[in-house]
């Protein structure tokens, strides 16, 4: 079927100025086909902001997002960077500092409700500070929050009020980190939506940010969510997202392992304890992702025979849609307590300081790193 926008010239949203399209609801500029006859025509995101005081998330690829970020350094801006604590290393925008220049950055660390209630939050903030320092990111303030539980948002709103002055507020983040929830809260607290949405187009890109007017004449700038391909959540079929993305507090699973033992996380990833003294490892993954223990020598044949059935998700049908696994060998030095992190899936905490030789197997492209223990 021919795209109904073709033949009509370029149609643009009267709210934000983005070029309209009817093909993909997840991309910027989407408008339902039946709404093309409206006058004026607005994209779905602007429609939801205008009529429901809600922002809906749209996404762009990394190159497009970096082109958008490159404009912020020349603006007078307060930047709110929202990250996912469960997938911190996968959702932090690497190199953000060089894009925002001297503009202040507030780091909103979302999904704290997923960590155990006994978590020492001061230690979590210290851990986040160290991770930001390693990435060269300077933050005015780090705020732990939960969009789901509405925790920490009052402090975040206070920080915005204290620091924005005459600045516009830019909200940046990856997909599925809670950015829309934050935008919606800012709209409710600051924005007079009787005003019309205004165009905020930057030269050199086909994508527009959405400017939401504030009561004092400044704007909240809603940027699209960046799609990071190294996050497991971007690879799996939508029906498997619920299995790997936890909704409730994590229940750490502790395993005492001898060398030569393997843990499978469904059919999504595998952890090998190759060499070292008997020791414990704690797994922080969704409770809906079943963990299977086996001998290292049997691991390859177990996966070959049972991937998609016993070792699921993904099921057999979706297994072939994922890239082949890559092996990441990680040596844990004596005295070091590390997390072995799989972006979008969780992490394995090495509890002992005896040292160990380990390996993580995950689909090619998924980010796997070792890091200081979060908990």
UniProtKB/TrEMBL annotation:
<dbReference type="InterPro" id="IPR048422">
    <property type="entry name" value="NOA1/YqeH-like_C"/>
</dbReference>
<dbReference type="InterPro" id="IPR006073">
    <property type="entry name" value="GTP-bd"/>
</dbReference>
<feature type="domain" description="CP-type G">
    <location>
        <begin position="66"/>
        <end position="229"/>
    </location>
</feature>
<dbReference type="InterPro" id="IPR019988">
    <property type="entry name" value="GTP-bd_ribosome_bgen_YqeH"/>
</dbReference>
<dbReference type="Pfam" id="PF21516">
    <property type="entry name" value="YqeH-like_C"/>
</dbReference>
<dbReference type="GO" id="GO:0005525">
    <property type="term" value="F:GTP binding"/>
</dbReference>
<protein>
    <submittedName>
        <fullName>Ribosome biogenesis GTPase YqeH</fullName>
    </submittedName>
</protein>
<dbReference type="Pfam" id="PF01926">
    <property type="entry name" value="MMR_HSR1"/>
</dbReference>
<dbReference type="InterPro" id="IPR027417">
    <property type="entry name" value="P-loop_NTPase"/>
</dbReference>
<dbReference type="InterPro" id="IPR050896">
    <property type="entry name" value="Mito_lipid_metab_GTPase"/>
</dbReference>
<dbReference type="InterPro" id="IPR030378">
    <property type="entry name" value="G_CP_dom"/>
</dbReference>
